[in-house]
Amino acid sequence: MRVLHVFKTYLPDTHGGIEQVIRQMCGATRTLGISNRILTLSEYPDPEFIEVEGIPVQRVRQDANVASTGLSRAAFGAFARAARDSDVIHYHFPWPFMDVLQLAVRPGKPYVVSYHSDIVKQRYLLQLYRPLQRHFLSRASRIIVATEPYRRSSLELRGLEARTEVIPYGLDEASYPQASASCLELWRQRLGPRFLLFVGVLRYYKGLHLLLEALAGLDQPVAIVGDGPERAALEAQARSLGLRHCHFLGRLPEEDVAALYTLAETFVFPSHLRSEAFGMALLEAAMYGKPMISCDIGSGMSEINRHELTGLDVAPTAAALREALQRLWQAPAERERFGVAARAHFAQHFQADQLGRRLVAVYRQIAPEAVREVIGQPDEASR
Question: Which stretches does DSSP call E strand in 226-350?
Answer without folding.
Answer: 246-250, 266-269, 292-295, 311-314
